[in-house]
Design a protein that fits this description.
The radius of gyration is 19 Å and the shape is globular. It has one domain. It is built from 15 helices and no strands. Helix content is 79%, strand content 0%. The two termini are 31 Å apart. It is mainly α.
Length: 244
């Protein structure tokens, strides 16, 4: 077993060792269902698709993912176990990757548990399941991008609450960059090239394209590169601050 796998298994098991993981999953499923069937008007729309379900994912992740990521490194730094972890025969990058992958797997488990909604839409109509699969993939990638941001910011502080707030703020900016009202405001001041550049940095823009069933390589690469960038930043922060 590689060191990354060892960290992955330890971290993933730690999520389910306490009731916190189950509470998180229940809250996520309840909110996803409420947003889909009530706020999203699932039945009233009269269309066999999961657009109301996926349209709320960016805003769900804005608060729920930071709740998962805030403990990744801040708790290790507060308890002093980060030094112990890094004295083991494991590289800094392996530790960062193992902890991130475990948290990402936990989020993907929560996402996959929404499958009854998928079954429901197939029971009620004849949806384009290819679009739904693409949307699930896009949602998982977006969750990973949120999580990578949170992991990096968690490494900057011992306080989980501060890590949570910082992650929400940064992710909100990344979401807001693709919000139509924001782009219209920017477009009234700057040329279209600037508007397109800002929109290209937004989670909302890239996830929206995937959720329509357009699985463009550029959108997938955007999320993957975002994850890699923030994980590299996380490793650098942990390396600099491990002795603090």
């Amino acid at each position: 077993m590689s060191p990354t796998q060892a960290v992955f298994r330890r971290e993933l098991a730690s999520y389910f060792a306490t009731p916190v993981a189950y509470v998180f999953i229940v809250i996520y499923l309840v909110l996803a269902g409420a947003f889909t069937f009530y706020l999203g008007g699932f039945y009233e729309r009269g269309q066999a698709d999961l657009q109301p379900f996926f349209s709320f994912h960016p805003w769900l992740y804005l608060f729920l993912v930071p709740a998962v990521s805030m403990r990744l490194w801040s708790e290790e730094r507060k308890s002093g176990t980060v030094e112990l972890l890094l004295t083991l025969p494991i590289t800094l990058w392996q530790a960062v990757a193992g902890k991130f992958l475990a948290a990402w797997a936990f989020l993907c488990i929560a996402l996959l548990l929404t499958f009854p909604i998928w079954i429901t839409v197939n029971y009620l109509g004849d949806p384009d399941n290819g679009v739904i699969v693409a949307s699930y993939l896009g949602s998982a990638l977006m969750a990973g991008a949120f999580l990578a941001v949170g992991a990096c910011l968690s490494a900057t502080t011992r306080n989980q609450v501060i890590a949570f707030i910082l992650t929400v703020v940064v992710c909100f900016v990344l979401l807001l960059a693709g919000f139509p009202l924001v782009l219209e405001f920017i477009g009234a001041i700057f040329p279209q090239g600037v508007v397109d550049a800002i929109a290209g940095l937004s989670f909302l823009t890239h996830f929206g394209a995937i959720a329509k069933g357009v699985l463009d390589v550029r959108d997938v690469l955007y999320f993957l590169l975002t994850i890699v960038f923030w994980l590299i930043a996380c490793a650098l922060v942990v390396g600099v601050r491990k002795a603090d």
